[in-house]
Amino acid sequence: MDAKSNAKMIQRTMLRLLPVQVLFAIIVTINGIVSTYFASNYVGVDAMSAVGLYGPINMLIGACSTVLVGGAAFLAGKYVGQNDHAKVKNIFTLDIVLSVALSIIFTLLLLVMGIFSLTSFFTRDEVIQPIFNIYLIGNAVGILPFIIGNQLTIFLSMENKQRLSVIASVGYIVANLILNVLFVQKLHMEALGLALASALGMWVFCFIEAIYFILGKSYYKYDYKSLDLTEFKNIVSCGFPGAETNIYQTLRGIAVNKMLLAFVGSAGVSAFAAANNLMGLFWAIPAGMIAVSRLLISVATGEEDRQTLIDVMRTMFYRYIPIMMVFVVGIIACAEPFTKLFFKDPSAPVYGYTVMGFRILPLCMCFSILCMHYVCYAHALEKHVILHIMTALDGVICVVAFTALLIKPLGMASVYIANVLNGVVVTLTFVIYSITQIKRIPRNMADVMAMPDDFGASDDERMDISVKSIEEVTSVAEQVQEFCKKRGVDKRRSYLAGLSMEEMAGNIVEHGFTKDKKTHSVDIRVVHKDDDVILRLKDDCVPFDPRERQKITENDDPTKNMGIRMIFKVASDVQYQNILGLNFLTIKV
């Protein structure tokens, strides 16, 4: 196969999905941004401190939700790659059950903390603590839809139904703004109004997404009767590395807030909250990037598709990072206008602290994209040592250590600079790890990734072909037969393998390439391993399931759809999935 063809297909897919995934990630940050705006403009600086103090708690809830999201997404993608539909359905069911249980636990925890004022660990300020207690009670209302909504979003993405999540996202944003105006600006409900507005808005988001699954239209279906709890451990073990950084960041947030209160004062906490919350809007871009990459990496891992893993990382370097650099420059240039959204007086210390944040914090964003992708890849290939080292450094050690070291001489600037130094250290860590693994300076992307030589089918065990036109289809059968013969496959299976691939490739080109004006290609892979001949076709055309076509034509004129009929007669197994807008057809001969 032309390696560039597969790379272009992966690149197109990643860039096509990116805007929607960024929008999903924005939803997580909308609460902080809107709450910060209404708190600073309609409630006061003390309410701003309450929003800042809630940040680590929100991070912890998000981290636990991410364990389920990451674990379920990874396992579902892996089982889809292995064509195991029963396990895919069980993962979805178990994920929903665990999400409901987790939501109940956090809802009760926040209510108890708020009602009985068990928040002295976060602050002992007699003014801020009561406000913080009320803010916790209001936020408790939205825990269930927040966690469930995160799960449904990932499964909608895997079914290529991102449009529903876009609608849900718009519904949430509109509801959140309207309710803030009503509760905070009009009814003067202050901290309780801030929290209830986003909590009730999240119910709107979750309901819109859930309709698709409730009506039974989804591929992923809830089936309590088939629930297998043995997968619980796998979901947690697979999802924890992705959430480990978030858990560390919870500890980091608590530690940094305490240092700011001790050395800078409440103005430092308010400024950091304002800068962080608005920056969350832009952090949604790296979050959306890794959300797309995570799904592709999980499927590629299940298929042991070495080339796709490399192409995902290349797209990250050559497309994602340049995109992010443009936003970084824009954020730095708009530091003062962004600050004026929250604080109007340029002479106030909180104003200068916030401007400083918008000028320094963006510098760590490109480093973060690199680190998140490498952590995701290390998780997929079970590189546990470097995975845990990087998450610990990135999550808590570097930022807390650099802040503690610099806060006395530099004050507020120390927190921002510490985040940038964190990115530098973590990036150097995985570069050094790669060098120690391959024992030389990396020469290509596979070297940078320190990809194991035994991962996936070897070059001798596989053949890749790229088909871009109907003229190229005619040579497919001959190439496949020749490969099979060289591998010692018997003449009959070699012939049937070549004929099957030519038939299906031709069908895709004839019907899929003509449905729109976009450029398409068919990625064909033939693998001979352990005496199995596995044929796989991947394309980015409109969804087409030959199994459904075969069922429809069973009683039709036998002269119609002869190619599809023939394939189902000679193949020992035929599996089809549409994942992230890509068609995957796997045939065993």
How would you characterize the overall build of this protein?
- With 589 residues, this protein is α+β, with helices and mostly antiparallel strands.
- The protein folds into 2 domains: 11-438, no CATH class; 462-588, Histidine kinase-like ATPase, C-terminal domain (Heat Shock Protein 90, 2-Layer Sandwich), CATH 3.30.565.
- 73% of the residues lie in helices and 6% in strands.
- It has a 5-stranded antiparallel sheet, sandwiched between helices.
- Helix 8 (232-263) packs parallel to helix 14 and helix 9 packs parallel to helix 12.
- The longest helix has 41 residues, at 3-43.
Output the number of helix runs: 21
Alpha-carbon distance between the termini?
A: 21 Å
Outline: elongated
Characterize the main sheet: 5 strands, antiparallel
Tell me the domain tally.
2
Average pLDDT, all residues = 84
Helix content: over 70%
Walk across the major sheet and give the strand order.
1-2-3-5-4
User: How many DSSP-defined strands?
Assistant: 5
| Beta content | 5-15%
Gyration radius, rounded = 26 Å
Q: Structural class per helix/strand content?
A: alpha+beta
**Poorly predicted regions:** none
List SSEs in N-to-C order.
Answer: HHHHHHHHHHHHHHHHEHHHEEHHEE
